[in-house]
Design goal:
The chain contains five helices and no strands. The protein is an all-alpha fold. Helix 1 (about 5-30) packs antiparallel against helix 2 and helix 2 (about 35-65) runs antiparallel to helix 3 (about 65-95). The longest helix is centred in the C-terminal third of the chain and has 31 residues, at about 125-155.
Amino acid sequence: MSKNYKHSAIVLGMHDALVSQTGIIAGLTFALADTKLIIMTGVISAVADGLSMMASNYLAERERTEFRYAFAAGIYTGIAYLGTSALMMIPFFITDNALRALVASCAIAVIIIFLFNWCVARGRTLWRRFAEMLGICVGVSIIAFIIGEVAKQFLGI
């Protein structure tokens, strides 16, 4: 087994955190608009999802390879997920303004996406890969925003 498992495990954890946490944070911001509730829910979600991603990637890799590579892949995935999620939650600890924190969190996500692709992609693929990852995150955030608004209206919050 090559060392590429580390790269793919990091991509899996980081990208899943970017997509799911951006969606969760956006949905919660518009549904609740309370930074303390957003922090509580976001942290619980990040830890549960990060551990789930860690276990899932371990089990998937274990089907293909030996224990040590599968275990390492799970660890890399979990750390990438939790680290990315933590970076995106920082603005909610800094300001009580949920919308301002959401904008800062989205800016952090864009920076993470750019830096990751800058480190990994070479040549012309940088901007294509950056646009693809960013488009996925934006799409999920828009869907989460819509769900948050519908939930807010439906529940009378």
